[in-house]
């Protein structure tokens, strides 16, 4: 598989303008590692659902870290994030502060400074990036603060995202998360081609969820089963925060009948579930 995936060219066609993201949009990054030939690692991002958070139409973005070895695909871990794409601007949710942090500005011009803000493993991180130049739909970047280990240290493809990792990387670890962008697809446009994307993404491991939530519908209680729960919040159908807590048992006695969104957090992982309160 390594030889097939390495056919992906590190060039983006001038005609590709992938502004439309939606459910099913996917990115595949190679993960640089020290494994011998025959064991490869990949990071896959996929928009798995939409939701309304803080009164905006947002997406749930799932990150899956996998290994392809002689024994087949192995799912090493998954994370989930909430992102909001407003035209050519992309934001990520800082959940504990109900705040949208800027991740990408595809309209930024040469010389512009971007104040990037995101959250990883319950830590809010700021980094500044300057657009050095824009050539053939590629933003070339450099970090303002060289003492900050977080940042985008490789070019960004306009309308797609960074060429090394979807989020700013922690450059103090070796190897840092990410590698070459091998595939982007939104169901209409593909980089570099459709067959490369289909080779990895038509695999059943991407249906794995970190939690299960039941019963649904419910009269009063929801139960969360699966990974540890650090905290959860509930939003109404119009994006209003209505409840929060830390227990695996959610008491809904204060809520009126209707549809709600339960957002669960554990470290850097998020799960989003729609339920109905009778």
Mean residue pLDDT: 78
Over all CA atoms, what is the radius of gyration?
A: 19 Å
Q: What sort of overall outline do the alpha carbons produce when their principal axes are compared?
A: globular
Order of helices and strands: HEEEEEEEEEEEEEEEHEEEEEEE
Subunit arrangement of the protein: single chain
β-sheet strand percentage: over 45%
Distance between the termini: 50 Å
- Low-confidence parts, pLDDT < 50 over ≥5 residues? 1-15, 203-208
Describe this structure in words.
The model is unreliable at 1-15 and 203-208 (pLDDT under 50). The strands form five sheets. Strands 6-5-4-3-2-1-14-15 form an eight-stranded antiparallel sheet, with helices on one face. Strands 7-8-9-11-12 form a five-stranded antiparallel sheet, with no helix packed on it. It contains two helices and 22 strands. Strand 1 and strand 2 (40-53) form a beta hairpin. The chain has 278 residues and is mostly beta strands. The chain has two domains: 2-10 and 17-207, no CATH class; 211-277, Immunoglobulin-like (Sandwich). The termini are far apart.
């Amino acid at each position: 598989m390594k030889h097939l995936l390495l056919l992906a060219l590190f060039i983006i066609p001038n005609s590709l303008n992938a502004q439309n993201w939606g459910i099913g949009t996917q990115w595949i990054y190679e993960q640089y590692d020290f494994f011998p030939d025959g064991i490869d690692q990949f990071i896959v991002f996929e928009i798995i659902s939409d939701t309304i958070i803080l009164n905006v139409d947002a997406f749930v973005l799932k990150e899956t870290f996998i290994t392809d070895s002689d024994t087949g695909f192995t799912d090493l871990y998954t994370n989930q994030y909430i992102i909001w794409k407003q035209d050519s601007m992309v934001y990520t949710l800082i959940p504990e502060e109900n705040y949208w942090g800027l991740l990408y500005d595809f309209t930024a011009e040469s010389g512009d400074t971007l104040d990037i803000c995101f959250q990883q493993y319950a830590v809010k991180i700021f980094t500044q990036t300057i657009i050095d130049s824009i050539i053939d739909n590629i933003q070339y970047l450099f970090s303002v603060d060289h003492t900050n280990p977080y940042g985008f240290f490789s070019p960004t493809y306009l309308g797609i995202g960074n060429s090394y990792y979807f989020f700013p990387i922690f450059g103090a670890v070796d190897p840092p998360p990410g590698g070459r962008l091998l595939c982007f697809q939104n169901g209409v446009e593909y980089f570099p081609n459709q067959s490369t994307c289909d080779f990895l993404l038509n695999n059943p491991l991407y249906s794995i969820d970190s939690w299960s939530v039941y019963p649904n519908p419910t009269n009063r209680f929801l139960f969360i089963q699966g990974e540890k729960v650090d905290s959860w919040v509930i939003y109404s159908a119009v994006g209003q925060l209505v409840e929060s807590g830390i227990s695996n048992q959610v008491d809904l006695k204060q809520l009126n009948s209707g549809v709600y969104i339960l957002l669960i957090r554990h470290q850097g992982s998020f799960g989003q579930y729609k339920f109905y309160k009778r």
